[in-house]
Amino acid sequence: MKKNIFFLFLFTSILVNSQTFTLSGKVVDESNQSLPEATILVKETNQGTSTDFDGKFQLKLSKGTYKIEVSHVGFKTGYFTQEISKNEDIIIKLISDSTVLDEVLVSAVRVKADAPVTHSNLSKKEIAKRNLGQDIPILMNYLPNVISSSDAGAGVGYTYIRVRGSDASRVNVTVNGIPYNDAESQGTFWVNMGDFASSTQNLQLQRGVGTSTNGSGAFGASLNILTDAVSEESGGEISNSFGSYGTRKHTVKFTTGKVNKHFEFAGRLSNIYSDGYVDRAFTDLKSYFLQGSYTDENTLIKALVFGGKEHTYQAWFGLTPDELAADRRQNPYTYDNESDNYQQDHYQIHWNEKLNNNWSTNIGLNYTRGKGFFEQFKDGEDAIDYNNLIVDGSDVIVDRWLDNHFYVANFNADYQNENFNIISGFSYSNYKNDHYGEIIWGSDLAASTNIRDRYYESNSKKSDFSVFSKATFNLAKKIKAFVDFQYRTVNYTTVGLTSDRAPINVDKTYNFFNPKLGFTYKVNDENSLYASYARANREPNRNDFEGGNSKHESLDDYEFGWRLKNETVKLNTNIYYMDYQNQLILTGAIDPNTGEPLRGSSGSSYRFGLEIDAKITLSEEFSMIPNLAISKNINRDYHEKIDGVLQNLGDTPITFSPNIVFGNSFVFKPIDNLQIAFLSKFVDKQFMSNLNSKVSKLDVLNDFFTSDLNVVYEVETSKIFKSIVFTALINNIFDKEYVDRGYYYTYDDTWSNPGTAKTIDGAGYYPQATRNFLVGVTLKF
């Protein structure tokens, strides 16, 4: 009998301990407002979830005692112990963290998780896993509908990003809410901020028009970057990495932590060098980041100084088809210093004041100083192209200079309560740039010529003022509305000569009104739907004016999305339709002097697509993070001159806009401090012209599929260092030879065929690296 009782007790004990219970709850802030997208992590099981539209969550746990971590950007991470022996329903309150600047510096340009705007976030932790020296566009390569590339082929130096087929000049970039795109070219030159990923707290990529932002209009996407947060505790890092093609990165970081509970000083010094996959396409980047901050209960003042100096050998002209076939790593340029040399320094001050539980204000000031030149050798040149400073047929070496100043002032006020949030503000920027070219050597200079005489010069000014107001409010229990209005006025003037000595005289003012409207509907605890409409207008860039195009372009962006979130699956699905008027699209050609992509008006065009991204938890150890974009990108009734005759080519594909972009990550975490990720990317074929191959097949880039392997292992130590992190990255593990970017040009040949006109075409390609690796060690203390 006693034996039966013992076995009954044992069976009951096993049954009770094998039961699972539900831990449910809600995460709120100090004002009891719900916090969507808060992360809940159970340390013992490595099981996690995130809160839904109303800040609610659920977890299934066996009987036991668990340590639980709750985090949300802009709030101090909460830790607590929870005993589970029955179903529990709890409320978790997070305290605002004045040292995290998300709500301070980027609230005016970012959206929250439940907003009717298609977006993706990338945290510092996620960035660090592959941060071994490659630039931010390369680290973003696995975000939905993103394609990244580099001139030198190894992801270091001049790197590029395209989102939904739109190039970097159409992706609005802000750093702490300050515009970063070059005011004239509208491009983003990451080479000037080497290793900036090491000073990035997190970033948000909004695809499509998104919310109103500062600076040039977003016509494909907007990317806003938040720099390093203020640290409560002192510490530092020493990071070194090495890899293929002589690539190496050396980074030193430090922070004093809070001194006297109010002050913090932090900084970073970095040096990145790579020989490049392409022969002699070296990159030498030196950069720094310094910040000082003061915080108390209601005030945050932060001053930042960051910048970099780059020296990069010429690889922007790519390879011809014959050169690519003969040796895909060759560099046809032989002059030793055919290189780019540029320094850019940024000075920012931000002051946030919390007036009460509802009101806060933010002021941001910026000054950017940039100066540098591209040095180039040319042989057998005509004197007239150099202002008659040389003799006809002379060889010549020139420096082409940019010398610019950029000033920005931002202000915004934020009011929020449980049901309503409104942010209003303005941004003003002023840009000045001197363009000039100097002759620094010539085989036969004209009699009156002195070294560093200028053969062209122009001066540019651009002012940009915008005012906005955006509000989020509850229309009903399950419906949130989003309204956003922006007025923007831009003036651009330039006078003088281009590098081709063509006159450029512009004085244009543009006035834009950009409204946005959206709704989010909560279907249930796991599902929500959203729909939005956004209008955007954008001025031409300098190259457009040089090509004679002064018309602005407009865009109507329609988005409809479905979000699903439970313990196993986090799914985002959206359909977009982007209708352009006078879209300035890449023609496929590049400027032969500067390598800048050239654009032309497509008249009427559209982008229509489906985007899906997800995170699927297969088990405690395995997860899968896939994304897929299927799109159609069309110029309507496109006209082009072929063989001397203007032809209507009908509907043609827009350049560099693949119909399919697919990415996926398989992540395996056998133990807490080890992660192995297998990443894959597929990009469908792309056209390098808008002609739909009516002239030749040279304008078609083949599809490609590549895979990377990423391993991160962290060892926690008790002496000297807090931990040691080992990182390894094998890029293009299956050794694929591929080209992901290029250019295409045509011209009518009449001089060699008098009385006829025949279209002659050509192309250039940028080969990307085959199998290569990077390994690194980071010492944290």
Question: Could you explain how this protein is built, in words?
Answer:
The protein has about 775 residues and is mainly beta. It folds into two domains: about 20-95, Sandwich (Immunoglobulin-like), CATH 2.60.40; about 225-780, Maltoporin, Chain A (Beta Barrel), CATH 2.40.170. The chain is built from six helices and 45 strands. The strands form nine sheets. The protein has a 22-stranded antiparallel β-barrel. A five-stranded mixed sheet has the order 8-13-14-11-12. A hairpin with a 6-residue loop joins strand 30 and strand 31 (about 595-600). It is globular, with a radius of gyration of 28 Å. The termini are far apart. The model is unreliable at about 5-15 (pLDDT under 50).
List the helices and strands and how they pair.
Blueprint: H1 2-18, E1 20-28, E2 39-42, E3 47-50, E4 56-62, E5 64-71, E6 78-84, E7 88-93, H2 102-105, E8 119-123, H3 124-128, H4 136-139, E9 146-150, E10 159-163, E11 171-175, E12 178-179, E13 200-207, E14 221-227, E15 235-243, E16 248-255, E17 263-274, E18 283-295, E19 299-313, H5 321-326, E20 339-354, E21 359-381, E22 394-416, E23 420-442, E24 453-476, E25 479-497, E26 503-522, E27 527-538, H6 542-546, E28 553-565, E29 569-581, E30 584-590, E31 597-601, E32 604-617, E33 622-636, E34 639-642, E35 645-648, E36 652-653, E37 660-671, E38 674-683, E39 686-687, E40 700-701, E41 704-716, E42 723-731, E43 739-749, E44 758-767, E45 772-780
Parallel strand pairs: 1-7, 11-14
Antiparallel strand pairs: 1-4, 2-3, 2-5, 5-6, 8-13, 9-10, 11-12, 13-14, 15-16, 15-45, 16-17, 17-18, 18-19, 19-20, 20-21, 21-22, 22-23, 23-24, 24-25, 25-26, 26-27, 27-28, 28-29, 29-32, 30-31, 32-33, 33-36, 33-37, 34-35, 37-38, 38-41, 39-40, 41-42, 42-45, 43-44
